[in-house]
Amino acid sequence: MFYIKTANAKVYFKAVKKNITLIEAAGGLVMNTKGQYLFIYRNDKWDLPKGKIEKDEKVKEAAVREVEEECGIKVSELGEKICKTYHVYVNRGEVVLKKTHWFAMKSKGKDKLKPQKEEGITDVRWFEHHHIEPIIENTFPSIMDVLHEQKLVTNKVMPLSE
Question: Which structural domain range is residue 68 located in?
Fold first, then answer.
């Protein structure tokens, strides 16, 4: 992780977005009837289900579709937009900026969780609100932003890696 100090963050961010590929994605923080939250394990990190918005697809539709595909569940209710996050990664030598729209969601059913292995997801699990330490200790800063917005964590600062 690195930080850039600038006099005007909005102007700088606008300039950066012009010069790199922007991918829009959508996903969700899903809660079940027991008050547990759904997380996926991908690329050796805990994450929330999300994925690219397809051409001519609405953001909310993409969020629900991605959650259902990646976890094998049925979303019973799409709630309010939580926030949007940005993160940068390199794909085939190209710098990509991913803008993700996050939504609160609910799932009622007793669906058997099924990780979408072709997307690199190796585990899908429900976590109690007060037992998400494994997530906090091994996730991405953008996921911490979502959890902070939903008041599941009070501190957005990531633990330092050893």
Answer: 10-149
The reported pLDDT for the residue numbered 17 is: 77
DSSP SS3 for 92: coil
Domain with residue 123: its CATH number is 3.90.79.10
pTM above 0.85? yes
- Backbone φ and ψ of 108, nearest 5°: -95, -35
160 within domain boundaries: no
Q: What is the pLDDT of residue 20?
A: 86
Q: Look up residue 95 and give its two tokens.
A: 């710098």
Q: Nearest-CA neighbor of 82 among 6, 14, 160, 30?
A: 30
**Considering only CA atoms, which of 116, 94, 95 is closest in space to residue 50?**
116
- Using CA atoms, how far apart are residues 115 and 124, in angstroms rounded to an integer? 6
Name every residue whose Cβ is closer than 8 Å to that of residue 127 and which is 6 or more positions away in sequence: 36, 37, 38, 39, 134, 135
In a domain, 71, yes or no: yes
